[in-house]
Amino acid sequence: MKVTLLLFSVAKDLAGFDTKELEVPDHATTDDVLEMLSKLNSGFLAWKGRLRFAVNQEYVPPNFELHPGDEVAIIPPVSGG
Amino acid sequence: MMIRIANEPIDLQSIVRSVITPESGGINVFVGTTRNHAGGRSVDLLEYEAYEPMALKMMHAIVEEAKERWPLHAVAVVHRLGRVEVGEVSVAIAVSSAHRKEAFEATRFLIDELKRVVPIWKREYFSDGSVEWSQQTDEQVVSSNT
Fold it and tell me: Where are the domains of chain A?
């Protein structure tokens, strides 16, 4: 299935892109997406545990299951204000 | 209700004016400005980016929560994006209520929540030429539905 991946801040820098149509196995979770990214750049491993995920613009619990067409965003520690 | 992300300088007067109602007896305003230092190093410029649709959604959500907790008349929350020079306004929050206590408390809640959950990031341009994503974050565990 396909999901849309959005990256911001340090996650965008690590990946080298800010948006991508991503092909993932059925029932893939946010952890699987992080694992895919870690293969792209092992720098993601150091951020594990500090990166939150949002699916369809809502924060989700760890290892959240994805569905076709989901908008999956990686949210590094926010620093607005 | 003025809740928005601004790509241009923030106009404080219009924000304050937007929350004045005939019933209001107190308006409290928080203004966040960009600092010329971070972690003991000199900063020339800041740059903000956002996951805009979600940032707006979260800004609306925290305003709704504040209105449930305190008897507020009106709320304005505006956050700047893009390059912001030192000393400029990066965020402004205005709250009106019948009495000052609620306005003070709600404003504090809103800026604390904004810094905790709204997906906006700050990049610091240091005077030594380096550019880094801010490490001065309010990191807290976020439950599944906040």
Answer: 6-15+31-68
Amino acid making up residue A15: A
Residue B79: name the closest of B89, B70, B87, B69 by CA. B89
Q: Is there a contact between B114 and B91 (Cβ–Cβ < 8 Å)? A: yes
In the predicted model, residues of chain B with pLDDT beneath 70 are 136-146
Contact A54/A17 with Cβ under 8 angstroms?
no
Question: Residue written as tokens 């400005």?
Answer: B33
Strand A58-59 to A52-55 pairing: antiparallel
Closest in B57, B79, B139 to A77, CB measured: B139
Which of chain A's residues have a Cβ under 8 Å away from the Cβ of B134? 79
Tell me what ipTM this predicted complex has. 0.95
Tally of CB atoms within 10 A around B66: 22
- What pLDDT shows up at residue A4? 98
A76 in Cβ contact with A10 (< 8 Å): yes
Are A78 and B116 within 8 A, CB to CB? yes
Instruction: Indicate if the pLDDT at residue A46 is higher than 70.
Output: yes
Cβ distance of B137 and A73 shorter than 8 Å? no
Task: Give the pLDDT confidence score for residue B1 in this predicted structure.
Answer: 82
